Amino acid sequence: MKILFMQKRLLLPANTGGKIRTLNVVRHLARWHDVTYVSNVLEEEQPYLNSMRGLGLRLESIPWREASRKSLRFAMLATRNLASRYPLNVDKDYDPRLRRRAEELLKSEPFDLLVCDFVQMARNAIDLPIPSVLFQHNVEAEVFLRQAQRRRGPMRWYLGHQAAKMRRFERDAGAAFSRVIAVSERDRQLFESDYGWKHVSVIDTAVDTEYFLPTPETHSKPNHVVFVGSMDWAPNVEGVQHFARKIWPLVRARIPEASFTIVGRNPPPSIRRLQGRLGVSVTGSVNDTRPYLTRASVGVVPIYAGGGTRLKIFEMIAMGRAVVSTSLGAEGLGLRDGEQILLCDNDEAFAKGVIDLLQDDQRRQTLAEHALQVIGARHTAEKVAGQFNAICEDVIGSAGSGHR
C-alpha cells in the first residue's frame, strides 16, 4: 500500500497527546507500507528531520513560521478570523503550499490512499482525487464548547463563536472523506448523531508498551502524586490549577508529607507560581516522562474540558501506576471505575480517592494490576496500528469496488 500522510507538524519530539497517538500508528504503518509524510516544519523542528526519516518513511517538509500566542501577529490573526467562516485553528493550519505539493505527488506517483491527520488540516486535503481517510482525534466543536462553558465574559463568547464555526466546518469536512477514524465509540456516536456521518470507524487508544514498562513501587517516592500532560493546552492548565488549589490542600490536610509534581512542556506563569506551595513541583519541558512516573505512587487526571481520549492515563497505567481521574478525563477509554481506575467528579471525592490509594498499598497495587491487564489485551501500539491498517485496506478495497 502506498500512503500519502498529511500532517501540520512533525511527530517528533513526541511532546503532545496528538503527536503520540499518531506516532504510535505511523511508525508501524511505515514498517508495513510505503509512507510519504507531507507536513510543515518549524525552525525548531529541523533537528528532528533525520529522526522522522528514521521511522522508515519518506519526508516531504515545507518550512513554516508560527506566531506566538502572545504576539501582536497572533492577535491580528485572531481578530481577522472573526470575519472568516473558518475556525481560527483551521485558518492558521492552512498552507496552500502543502496542498500543491500533495497535488504534485498524486500526479506523479500511484498512491493508493491519503490520510489527513486532524480535521484542522482538512482544507489542505479535501477533494484530492484519491480514496481518503480523516484521522479524527476529538470532536473538535465539543472541545471548544466545553471550554466556553467554563469561562465567563468575552472569552466565553469567543470560544462559543469558535465552537459554532468548528461545528459547521467539521461536519462538512468529515463528509468529504471516504472514511473517518475516531478514537472512541462515544466519539463515533456523536459524529453519527450530530453530523449524520455513516462512514466512521473506531480504533482503540494505544500506548507504546515497549517504551513504557511497569516499574516496581520500591522505586517510587512514598505519598508522591504526579500529573503528566502538555501545559500549554488550556484544559490541562485549568484542570491542574483547580486540582492544586481546591483538591490538593484536602490531600495535604490528611497526609502532610504528600508531594505533587506537574510534568509538561511550556507551563504558563499561573502554573509556575504553584512551585513550592504545599509540596508542589513544576518541571516544565522534560525529554522523558518515565522517571517522573516511576517516582510516583499515584497519577491524577483532573480534566474538566477537552475531548478525545487521554493517552496520559494509559502511559501511567503502563508504568504500573494507579490513576485517579474525572469521568471526562477517562472518557472513551473503557476503564471500569473501582476496578481499573478511580473516577471522581467532585473535589472531596477526588481528594478521598487520592488519599485512599496513597494509604492503602494493596488497593493501589490491585487497581494498577487490573488496569495493566487491559492495556496488554488490546491497547499496545502495534495492535492499534493494526486496527488502523485494516480500516485503510477496507477503504481502498471499497474504492476499487465502486463503493464509498
Under CATH, the topology of the largest domain can be stated as: Rossmann fold
Report the top-level CATH class of the largest domain.
Answer: Alpha Beta
**Tally of strands:** 13
Instruction: Give the name of the CATH architecture of the largest domain.
Output: 3-Layer(aba) Sandwich
Provide the gyration radius in Å.
21 Å
Order of helices and strands: EHEHEHHHEEHHEHEEHEHEHEHEEHHH
- pLDDT < 50 runs, ≥5 residues: none
Number of self-contained structural domains: 2
Classification by helices and strands:
alpha/beta
Task: Report the end-to-end length measured between terminal Cα atoms.
Answer: 18 Å
Write down the overall mean pLDDT: 93
Topology (elements, then pairings):
Blueprint: E1 2-6, H1 17-32, E2 34-41, H2 49-53, E3 58-63, H3 72-81, H4 88-91, H5 96-108, E4 113-117, E5 132-136, H6 140-149, H7 153-175, E6 179-182, H8 185-195, E7 200-202, E8 224-228, H9 234-254, E9 259-263, H10 269-272, E10 280-284, H11 290-295, E11 298-301, H12 311-318, E12 322-325, E13 342-343, H13 347-359, H14 361-378, H15 381-400
Parallel strand pairs: 1-2, 1-4, 2-3, 4-5, 5-6, 6-7, 8-9, 8-11, 9-10, 11-12, 12-13
Helix pairs in contact: 1-15, 6-7, 9-13
Which terms would index this structure?
404 residues; alpha/beta; Rossmann fold; 2 domains; 6-stranded parallel beta sheet; globular; Glyco_trans_4-like_N; transferase; glycosyltransferase activity; Glycosyltransferase
What do these coordinates show?
By secondary structure, the protein is α/β, with parallel strands linked by helices. The chain has 15 helices and 13 strands. It has helices at residues 17-32, 49-53, 72-81, 88-91, 96-108, 140-149, 153-175, 185-195, 234-254, 269-272, 290-295, 311-318, 347-359, 361-378, 381-400; strands at residues 2-6, 34-41, 58-63, 113-117, 132-136, 179-182, 200-202, 224-228, 259-263, 280-284, 298-301, 322-325, 342-343. The strands form two sheets. Strands 3-2-1-4-5-6-7 form a seven-stranded parallel β-sheet, sandwiched between helices. A six-stranded parallel β-sheet has the order 10-9-8-11-12-13, sandwiched between helices. Strand 9, helix 10 (269-272) and strand 10 (280-284) form a beta-alpha-beta unit. It starts with a strand and ends with a helix.
